[in-house]
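Session log. Operator J.P. requested a structure for one protein chain; no other inputs attached. Running the standard single-chain path with token output.
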Amino acid sequence: MNASRYEAVIFDCDGVLVDSEVLAIRGERRVLGEMGLHYTPAEYVRQFVGLHDDAFIDAVRVDYRSVIGEEPPDDLGDQVIAGRRDEMGALKAIDGAAAAMRTVIDLEKAIAVASSSRAHFLERKLKKTALWEHASPHVYSADLVAQGKPAPDIFIFTAKKLGIDPERCLVIEDSENGVKAGVAAGMTVWGFLGGGHCYDGHGDRLRDAGAADLVENFVALAQALAHV
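Structure written below.
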């Protein structure tokens, strides 16, 4: 790994900075299972993690029509998101996230968060876990762009806000959709494996999506950033 060529580090939020994906998956799968849609955790990660809520709910509606054979309820999205929200009382920062963000700042690199989360949820999660102060003011939601991940829009938007060429940006991502988005934006992406939802083979899938390297946790990330 060589981080010296990068002027900015852009973090995804869910599953990278905060361990929300494992909670969201649990709550969403519970609700969908009650509707008759059953996924293993690993299948769920591959299919849905990293998508903006609108794209996620659209994809679930497609599965509902295919599996159940009828139109999904009008409030399907509301039910699924309520299931997710029920789990978020247990939300915590991923171990070492704050220290890694401080390492980026100490190295005098720009820092940002670019997330598929809706803006108000994104701010709430980062403030709840005391990470907001490290990234603010460069915290950006896919609500701000036309298309969410795996489209590159949010990363291109973030690079413009930072005033840094995409080729000089390093992205830290945990999902295949996020990796594809960063690569499509012309950025280098390191796959992050420190979230509770990273099942066997997750790293291989991130590499297949275009991740240039993998980091197991924030200790490894901080070391990779600091020793260049």
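Operator note: Strands lie at 8-11, 110-115, 139-141, 169-173, 188-192, 213-215.
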